[in-house]
Design brief:
By secondary structure, this protein is mainly α. The protein has one domain (about 5-100): Orthogonal Bundle (Recoverin, domain 1), CATH 1.10.238.10. The protein contains five helices and no strands. The longest helix is centred in the N-terminal third of the chain and has 17 residues, at about 5-20. Bound molecules: calcium ion. Calcium ion binds near residues 74, 76, 77, 78 and 81. InterPro entries: EF-hand-dom_pair, EF_hand_dom, S-100_dom, S100/CaBP7/8-like_CS, S100_Ca-bd_sub.
Length: about 110
């Protein structure tokens, strides 16, 4: 039995999140996935490599986005905050594209 496309999309989101969120904790002995969160540096890297955000070289823009995403105020982006962001991108691609320089697809 093959996974549904939506299930695979969710798995991909989890894999991408954990890949970037674990960068700063690479040498940590703690491997509990729930403890992984995106730091500002990790968020910036994810935005550049996985979302083609052009304006993330502008540190103020990353600060601004980090504040918007960090709903619990711990200066990190956890998986829940990340998923809300991904859904926001899906719903407001045009708005975010103008604000943060999201590249248009070429298809
Ligand atoms: Ca947070």
């Amino acid at each position: 039995m093959t996974d549904s496309r939506v299930t695979m999309a969710i798995q991909t989101l989890m894999q991408v999140f954990h890949e970037y969120a674990s960068k700063d904790e690479a040498h940590s002995e703690t491997r509990d996935m729930n403890q992984f969160k995106l730091s500002k540096r990790e968020l910036k890297e994810l935005l550049q490599k996985e979302l083609n955000f052009e304006n993330v070289k502008d540190s103020d823009k990353v600060d601004e986005l980090m504040k918007e995403l960090d709903s619990n105020g711990d200066s990190q982006v956890d998986f829940q905050e990340f998923v809300i962001f991904v859904v926001s991108v899906a719903c407001m691609t045009k708005f975010l594209g103008e604000k943060f320089g999201l590249k248009r697809g070429t298809s």
